[in-house]
Design brief:
By secondary structure, the protein is of the alpha+beta class. It has a single domain, classed as HORMA domain (Cell Cycle, Spindle Assembly Checkpoint Protein, Chain A, 2-Layer Sandwich), CATH 3.30.900.10. About 20% of the residues lie in helices and about 35% in strands. It is built from two helices and six strands; from the N terminus they run E-E-H-H-E-E-E-E. Strands 1, 2, 3, 4, 5 and 6 form a six-stranded antiparallel sheet that branches. A hairpin with a 3-residue loop joins strand 5 and strand 6. The longest helix has 20 residues. The protein is globular and about 45 Å long.
């Protein structure tokens, strides 16, 4: 889907196993450059080594930021599950075993922190984490 520029957003939802309530929602908006969209599959042709190194450094910076977010996110001290939500365009070939889902928004007061964005020649990815605030019920 990414190579065909069909992904619009990826969301990782962390929910309470006991209640099903969404505790954290990590959203990554994927924007496709107009040039890449117009070029089609050829836009994913091999990149220059310098581009690949730059992209890897940007992704590493995002991972460091996600890891550092542990300092401000509320402690999840109950069993949790996660769901991966993939928002695609209407032409994406979705596996039959996959189901449609609601957006699994957080109910109640939330805090949201924007994450550093990164871009390639094809995609720009902007992220944010939303979490329940103040934490209720020990979560």
């Amino acid at each position: 889907w990414m190579q065909r520029s069909q992904v619009k957003k990826l969301v990782v939802v962390i929910a309470s196993q006991a209640t099903g309530d969404t505790l954290e929602r990590w959203a990554f908006d994927v924007h496709v450059s107009e040039e890449a969209a117009a070029a089609g599959p050829d836009a994913t042709a091999p990149r220059a080594q310098a581009d690949a190194v730059r992209e890897q450094k940007e992704i590493q910076a995002i991972i460091r930021q996600i890891t550092a977010s542990v300092t401000f996110l509320p402690l999840l001290d109950e069993p949790c599950s996660f769901d991966l939500l993939v928002y695609t365009d209407k032409w994406a070939d979705v596996p039959k075993a996959w189901d449609e889902s609601d957006p699994k928004h957080i109910v109640g007061a939330i805090q949201e922190v924007k994450l550093r964005s990164f871009s390639t020649k094809i995609h720009k990815v902007e992220g944010a984490v939303a979490y329940r605030f103040p934490a209720e019920g020990g979560c």
